[in-house]
Amino acid sequence: MNLKAERTLNQGKYVLSTQLGAGVFSLTYKATDTESGQSVVIKTIGEALRQHPNVNQFKQEFLDIAKRLNYCQHPHLVRVLDYFEDTGYPYLVMEYIPGQTLADVLQAGSLPEAEAINYIRQISDAVKVLHQVELLHRDIQPKNIIRRQDSDRVVLCEVGMLYEFTPGVQQTYASFLSAGYAPPEENTLTPTATPQTDIYALTATFYCLLTGSPPLPAPVRQALLAKEKDRLFPSSSQPASSNLSSPIQQAVKSGLELIPNNRPQTIDTWLKQLPLQESVAIPEPIIPQPVKTQPHSKPYPRKSPKLKTLPSKVTKGQHSKSCPRAKGRSNTQNPVLERREGTRLKTARTKASIPLQALFMTGAIAASAGIGFGCAVRLNQPGEPGSTILHTQQTFPPRSDWPVSESQL
């Protein structure tokens, strides 16, 4: 049952516009967020799962995985903005990314080695974020990678959310696997997925970017291997592969090993086999922030990336903070710094001399005042007592009636 256009979800917050995809297990729509006015993508379980007896189990798994994806914030991984239930069914809201898929880009031919490495490193970083919260993508391929419009940034989409099903549903799911990108363990009746499963699909995607087509399907490769005819790079059918460097071919062979334990056990281990490239700082795209609503389980903590600080280059004549200063002057001293240092010392000396000057000035003023007072006393010779303030001695007329207290015996 497909949802009709103009239908509203989550109490009118989202309005559906067009259907983007209709699979056996999921339905995908383009919609509008009425609060922000932005376009978004909404995904829900498909009709086959809605009619399944274990629909409540699938609904809970859908919401639990949506919550974990909500914590996976990475510029090369599609962002989950919201998740909710409406009329008994789960829904997942993701950012809408305008641009071309790498499958569309490959219509013009294979990519240069440097460009393919650049894209695959971006996608590898996104897959590592999924593995940190114990999620697998399960469907890495060029059609699920979008190159943002007017940029060289790619984003991994279509995370495989509905793979923990009952055995019957798992067998149906296996029949829809993309040939060439699914490893051998995905083609069994009881598929077991590990991080090596994503490494195989990641390497197959890299192979396709380099050659223009995916590798042979895993069952075909297994049959050829039994006859000792498994060749990943048949130059006759794929001329582009003959131009690949030896390190690239070795990285592809290790990632496409048919036995999971023979593949690199982590993405970082596999990436170390690729040639190094100079990293170029690219502005981060402006992406809506996710909305954390309706918790269903204990959230996975987000891990802050560890930034590596590169040591600065030490040239001759420079000394690190941990080393004592060398005696004497270096031959490479900066004249600007010397002028600044001289100005600083001169200012310090000037400030230090101010108290001494003030002391001399105070002494001079006191000495002048004392000399002036002495001269005034010397020159002013009053004729009679009390005539001036400098002659304060006064006489009084004689009296015989001074009061005398009588002694008390």
Automatic annotation (TrEMBL):
The keyword Transferase applies. Residues 316-328 have a biased composition (Basic residues). Signal peptide: none annotated. One of its GO terms (molecular function) is ATP binding. Residues 285-346, 386-409 are annotated as: Disordered. The keyword Transferase applies. This is Protein kinase domain. Residues 14-287 form the Protein kinase domain. Pfam families: Pkinase (PF00069). GO terms for cellular component: autophagosome; cytosol; membrane; phagophore assembly site.
